[in-house]
Amino acid sequence: MSEQRLPAALECGAAVGELIEQVEEGHADDPTSHQAGCPYCQLTLSRLAVSWRAGERLRMERVQPSSRLLAGVMPRIRSGLDDWRVELPGERGPTRVSVAVLTALAFWAATTVPGVRQVLRANPRGSDVRTEETRSGRTRVVSPNNLRIDLELSVDYGFSALLVADEVRRAIVDQVRDMTGLQVAAVDLAIVDVG
Asked: Has residue 157 been placed in a domain?
């Protein structure tokens, strides 16, 4: 289904963008001499004004999320604030890979697998080694041993969930290894939806 768009100009030649600006500035009820006699401009101004008022009502509405929504969202936000890095020793000094990098690589790799409808959550985890104080706060430096990635995803209907899961695991392990040199010990998958 193609997306419907407003035309650049009406049949009478009036620019739709100018009519939108007129409504936005609160002058929908102040037609020009052309607009007063033009059925195209009158109808468009009327429809734009109705849509604009509906949008303004929504914008002014105070939204209060449910406690259930907050209970589901806040732990994920807090886990994103957990600042830890995996440290890789090297001849010229250690290289630290952020959890955000591992999360992004897991998301990217999983979405390239045919049959993956959506990646809902990726959460790398590992064994703590030590905590360091930095200017921005505390950082946990994690051992590269036993690095695991928890993943939630939905698969497309008609694909074998087991085959998709195997391909996702392979893609993540390969991607993380190729980009960072880290070996992922396991990718723990939860398939939570089919669509």
From this structure: yes
If you search the block for the tokens 């052309």, which residue do you land on? 34
Torsion angle in degrees (nearest 10) through CA of 99, 139, 73, 176: 10
* Residue 41 neighbours by CB distance under 10 Å: 23
Does 1 map to a domain?
A: no
Name the DSSP letter for residue 123: E
pTM of this structure: 0.55
Residues 6+ apart with CB under 8 A from 150: 121, 122, 123, 124, 125, 188, 190
Tokens at residue 57, please? 């009502």
Question: What is the token pair recorded at 98?
Answer: 């952020």
For residue 122, what are the domain limits? 67-194
pLDDT tens-digit readout, 131-175? 666 665 666 777 778 888 999 999 999 999 999 999 999 999 999
Q: How many domains does the chain have?
A: 2
Q: What gap in Å lies between CA 69 and CA 170, rounded to an integer?
A: 33
